[in-house]
Design a protein that fits this description.
There is one protein chain. With about 425 residues, the chain is an alpha/beta fold. Helix 6 links the parallel strand 8 and strand 9. It starts with 14 loop residues before the first strand and ends in a 16-residue tail after the last helix. The strands form three sheets. Strands 4, 14, 15, 16, 17, 18, 19, 20 and 21 form a nine-stranded mixed sheet that branches. Strands 5-6-7-8-9-11-12-13 form an eight-stranded parallel β-barrel, surrounded by six helices. It has a three-stranded antiparallel sheet with strand order 1-2-3. About 5% of the residues have low confidence. The protein is globular and about 65 Å long. The chain folds into two domains: about 160 residues, Lyase, Ornithine Decarboxylase, Chain A, domain 1, CATH 2.40.37.10; about 240 residues, TIM Barrel (Alpha-Beta Barrel). About 25% of the residues lie in helices and about 25% in strands.
Amino acid sequence: MSTTTLSSVLPFGSEIGPNGHLLLGGCDSVELAREYGTPLYVMVEDDLRDRATRFVNALEASGLDGQVMFASKACPVAAVCGLFAELGIGCDVTSAGELRLALHGGVPPEGILFHGNAKSDADIADALSVGVGLIVVDAADEVVRINAAAASAGVHQKVLLRVTPGVEGDTIAAISTGQEDSKFGVNLIEAPAVIELIEAADSLELVGLHLHVGSQLGDTDAIRRAAEAIAPLGSFPVVNLGGGLGVAYCDGDPQGDIEAFVAGAAAAARDCFGEGVKLMLEPGRALTAAAGVTLYSVEGVKRNVSTWVAVDGGISDNLRPLAYGSRYEALIADRVGERPDTPARVVGKHCESGDEIVSDANLPAPKRGDTLAVPVTGAYGHSMANNYNAALRPPIVLVSGGKSRLIVRRERFDDLLGREIGDPVRSVGDRDA
């Protein structure tokens, strides 16, 4: 049997088992698929802990006081938020739902930062009621609304002001956020007036500035330029330079360098805002993406010019290929060590030609019943999962040391039907009299 080495994008500690199966966190991935069903999100705990610890240590090594905040939109799961909280990482939330998940996971309220470009009055009330550490002001009108709500609640709320620096990161348009014409934040021209408005508000305390230039960044050049752009707005105790460190999705892609990224952001903060500034960073994808692998069952293989490998999931559990043209790898978990010899297109079960998970896979003689693994799905798989074709959203298992633990259960048909109004006309299995 010809063998090949494991892909570099598999989670920390992945191995080939004695039976040729892919081992994730010491667990046989084929057995995981049998036990929990497919599609299945698998998260490797050791990978999560390794990346989180590297971020925390790198910030400490920078010499600046600071705080790492997990951008939970990447993987809004209570157990993941709680794991990071144990390691000293706070949580960045953008909705009432993410706020509840963070709290449910054990993140202390003072370790939560709440932001978003379209906060409702209910969102603001939620954030104030639990005592979040920071709220990010995204527009001038929010100053008035947050101040009034804080006054009504008898709260003195610390805030950051999100500024759009007019700097574009080297990334695709859909995940670029720092350009001048953006739905996020206030621009450099309006920012001084908004700062004055916040400083005049009786129930708010402006502690710093916030920016974010985009996702899938290879370095901190854009972050430095953005920091330089907003530095003339004034001296504040805190600066939040966002996140955005990119990850490798396919073997051979450049790997994001956590230590270099943190060091570069710290140098930019120090140079632009002074030695005493507190630096906040908001990694999301860089903490969770590589820890995740999605397992599918192969339902069919056929030849229509291309070889089409159809699995039991698709855009309902990974929307990124359709939304962004994102590229992934695919592996046959049952025979992960065998040399691939079949170029194939891995597609989902949904009624869209664009429901294609991997367009250029190379697999070892795929067949129905195989367990197919797609690495680097720990970010924006679960968070963007949906019910297209009334599909049930997958469960998540956390694996470590050869043991697995269910942390999010599979959605059930009762979950779908529970939102429908009115008496059911017919149930599956009913027959005419």
